[in-house]
């Protein structure tokens, strides 16, 4: 009798789990992105974040404490819109750029070394910190020499630095954190997306006329759609991801109200000399903007609807992929059933002829 060598041969069934493509991994490990490419990615992301201000002309906004009576076209060129009327735009330019850097770093994580995130962050900060320093120096040289000017400039620099630090956290969350952390970082950027896109498409809404209505419609719902898309991308399959989804919705609820309160209070020249009344006014605006149902509820409903559609779509795509990856499971099951029935018929006793 010849030995049966079928046990030594691998099973050739369609249910076998496919092995990962080792060739792509070998290429990505042997030829990772160089450090200077990661540096350029971070710098380019920062430049894209500043794009609304760069394409708008980079002209410094009008200053109440400017030393001369220069017309607007003679104001200097700066890299950030330092003005109490553009606080939300300053934050958007820095934080959205950081989020773009994080997305690029996450998308290239299989092509870079672990130090690539650090180099991307260095490239991001090299542009953003330079923009803050350059703008602060230019504005300081043109303001009146008085205490109010120093306080005004210090407040603007503090806002820019705070936005820069938040941007660093957003970039690291999106680039390196698990999906739950990345969803939170993306939600922070999504809340500021309307300010960023508004600065790009509507630098001065008062001069846009009726053609601005479609753009304003998009700007109103853009944060909600992006938050919902981030939740759908992150999923809700774990406790951490569920918590991240709740935090993202909370940011969508609180973030716009906070931006409205700060912008309204800081943009009031009447309250500029009354800090206590300015704070009280900001608190009142925040309370109204965060509790009125007609303001709060619609964006949350849109975000939940977008997230639900995305999650259902992911589930459908996953099931369709599973069925296409193992198409012969049902066929093999169907092929085995006739043999089983045949063997059962063969082993059954012959029919009785007693009757």
TrEMBL record:
Q: Where is the composition biased (Low complexity)?
A: 330-347
Q: Where is this region: Disordered?
A: 1-26, 321-355
| Keyword field | Membrane, Transmembrane, Transmembrane helix
Protein name as it appears in the record: Uncharacterized protein
Q: Which domain of life is it from?
A: Bacteria
Report whether Membrane shows up as a keyword of the record. yes
Keyword Cell membrane tagged: no
**Residue spans with biased composition (Basic and acidic residues)?**
1-14
Task: Give the transmembrane region(s).
Answer: 35-55, 85-105, 117-139, 151-175, 182-202, 214-236, 243-266, 295-317
């Amino acid at each position: 009798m010849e030995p049966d060598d079928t046990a030594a041969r691998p099973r050739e069934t369609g249910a076998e789990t496919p092995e990962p493509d080792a060739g792509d991994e070998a290429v990505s490990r042997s030829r990772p992105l160089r450090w200077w490419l990661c540096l350029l990615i971070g710098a380019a992301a920062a430049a894209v974040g500043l794009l609304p201000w760069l394409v708008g002309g980079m002209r410094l906004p009008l200053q109440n404490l400017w030393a001369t009576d220069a017309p607007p076209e003679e104001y200097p060129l700066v890299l950030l819109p330092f003005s109490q009327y553009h606080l939300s735009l300053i934050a958007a330019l820095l934080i959205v750029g950081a989020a773009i850097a994080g997305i690029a770093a996450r998308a290239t994580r299989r092509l870079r070394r672990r130090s690539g995130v650090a180099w991307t962050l260095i490239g991001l900060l090299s542009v953003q910190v330079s923009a803050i320093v350059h703008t602060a120096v230019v504005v300081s040289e043109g303001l009146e020499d008085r205490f109010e000017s120093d306080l005004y400039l210090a407040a603007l620099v503090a806002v820019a630095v705070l936005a820069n630090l938040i941007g660093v956290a957003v970039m690291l969350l999106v680039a390196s954190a698990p999906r739950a952390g990345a969803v939170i970082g993306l939600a922070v950027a999504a809340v500021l997306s309307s300010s960023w896109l508004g600065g790009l498409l509507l630098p001065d809404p008062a001069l846009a006329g009726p053609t601005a209505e479609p753009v304003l419609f998009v700007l109103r719902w853009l944060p909600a759609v992006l938050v919902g898309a981030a939740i759908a991308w992150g999923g809700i399959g774990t406790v951490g991801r569920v918590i991240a989804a709740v935090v993202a919705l909370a940011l969508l609820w609180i973030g716009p109200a906070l931006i409205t309160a700060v912008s309204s209070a800081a943009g009031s020249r009447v309250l500029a000399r009354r800090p206590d009344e300015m704070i009280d006014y900001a608190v009142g605006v925040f309370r109204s903007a965060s509790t009125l149902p007609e303001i709060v509820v619609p964006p949350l409903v849109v975000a939940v609807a977008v997230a639900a559609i995305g999650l259902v779509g992911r589930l459908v795509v996953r099931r369709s992929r599973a069925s296409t990856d193992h198409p012969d499971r049902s066929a093999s099951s169907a092929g085995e059933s006739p043999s089983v029935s045949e063997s059962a018929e063969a082993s059954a006793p012959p029919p009785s002829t007693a009757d």
